[in-house]
Specification:
The protein is of the alpha+beta class and 172 residues long. Strands 1-2-3-6-7 form a 5-stranded antiparallel sheet. The longest helix has 16 residues. The protein binds zinc ion.
Length: 172
């Protein structure tokens, strides 16, 4: 198990559409373990392979109080509704911003054994994390959903704004 350094905004690996995994083998399972360790170390609720410099379609979802799980070749197959959410990212440390996300998402992909999985989430942190991580493997960052980079807020500013205090430290 290896904690690998997180890549930050500006690193080209975050902008390349990641490659589809052809076979879920031991290499992928080791990657899943490293990604999980790196996510926990960085205190994130999700991580995508490009965030540790690996250009493959693999993400980990790590909801608080729940076991982290991987999705290989994740794909949003259905989305509906919209909601405004405060969001952060391990690759954009120190900042957060309000973005529009779907209310309900259905994601399909493969688990660590290569078996098909399908996850449905509605109106919760899981739904937000699923969209955020699938964005990552497409080379998209949440900052792309802002109207302007001026809408990025420094995390320190949170202490002075009451309406965003309850979002806690959820970075994906
Ligand atoms: Zn992120």
């Amino acid at each position: 198990m290896t904690v690998r350094p997180i890549r930050y905004l500006g690193d080209p690996v975050l902008r390349q559409p990641a490659k589809k995994v052809k076979r879920v083998d031991d290499y992928i399972r080791r990657l899943i373990i490293d990604m999980t360790e790196s996510m926990i170390e960085a205190q994130g609720v999700g991580i995508a392979a490009p965030q540790i410099g690996v250009n493959l379609r693999v993400v980990i979802i790590g909801m608080p109080d729940d076991h982290p799980f991987p999705i290989v070749n994740p794909e949003v197959v259905k989305r509906s509704g919209s909601r405004e959410l405060d969001e952060g990212c391990l690759s954009v440390p120190g900042y957060h911003g309000i973005v529009s996300r779907s209310k309900k998402v259905v994601v399909k992909g493969l688990n660590e054994k290569g078996r098909q999985i399908r996850i449905t989430a509605e109106d919760n942190l899981l739904a937000q994390a699923l969209e955020h991580e699938v964005d990552h493997v497409n080379g998209t960052l949440y900052v792309d959903h802002l109207n302007s980079r001026d809408d990025l807020m420094k995390i320190e500013a949170r202490a002075y704004t009451s309406n965003v205090e309850d979002v806690s430290d959820t970075a994906n």
